[in-house]
Amino acid sequence: MKYRTICTLLIVVSFFQLKAQTPYYRVDDPEGKTCYFIDTLGKQIPVGVHEKLKINGNFSGGLICINFKKKLANTDAWGCLNEKGDTIIRGKYLEPFYFYNGVAKVSVGTMPALVSVDGDEPTYYCQYIDKKGELINDKIFEGDYSYDMDHSWAITKSGPQWYIISKNGTLKELSVDYAYVSDFSSGLAKCKRMNHYTVYIDTTGWPVAEIRNENYTGDFYNGFTEYSTVKDKFGFINKLGQPISPCIYDEVSYFNEDLAAVKIYNKWGYIDTKGKMVIKPEYDITEAFFNGLARVCYNGKCGFIDKKGKLVIPLKFTEANSFFLNGLAAVSQENIKWGFINKKGDWVIKPQFIEGAKFDEFGFTTVFYADKNSLKKGILENYEKALISKNGKVIWCSGQKLVIK
Prior knowledge:
The protein has 405 residues and is mainly beta.
């Protein structure tokens, strides 16, 4: 597999690991067709070996989704196994699925539309099931406009009618005046009225804010969302719909740890929840604050600042990821090798990987490395994959034994 595919695979791996609710990890030879699962000690669990394309990336709710499709069948048949390999939900659904808060949205039939909202795939009807495979509600919904049960409720749609569905299957009808409703974020869902005004509703369906004459409004995160009343300029509003900053910024990020990155005059800085500029705009690239630090880049070099704007880790890295969980960040320097630093900027795991991703909630991450079989005539032809702990312990690797420096 070529080097250019690594970044995409890393995103997928990180995405799946974040969904994991038990510390089991899918592992495989990158060049092979099958995969299996191990625990944090590297021991293979009894769920067995499966084809990569016929099994989900990781467990959710103690179950793994697998395609039971038979060779001559025309449609997929996704169901679930438990960690022992027992069939818990028989294969009958058209797409893979994950459980959130004990509920999964499952595809049950193809809608009579040529393409989906994205314009490139079939679109499906959906229903919601619990971990026993039983429906929480008999009604059939439109898959492209129905969302996962990220909390104890979700937005869903059937025909022209939008609903709030709870995890026990209770439905609440929303106003027929809503042409579109987004999923809940920070306890609010964005609704577009027929007159194009934006209304935000709470989890009971009650409208808590109405925004008029806007060009754009986003989804709430940590109590705030971006909005625009001036073409190509953005600001923020709070959950009451009140502006906390004017629409003067060319681009904005989102609030995390009470600060948000904003771009003005082609440079990025940070404002607080009152809209005050607290870190002056002087960076080419910024990210949100995590664990008290934010990644910033200037003139092709990246480092980290604290919430007062002090550069606590110098601008010396070619690339860097944020400090998410477990107090470590993946970074690389001129040699294009990745390693991990702590919040003091000290190397915890020295640069030695082709790419590095963030550690998950259990303290593990997947890295990619080259061994003696990876290079041919000085050119990287393939890579190997390893699961490591934040302490630098190799739990599993696909190729030649990896020794962490």
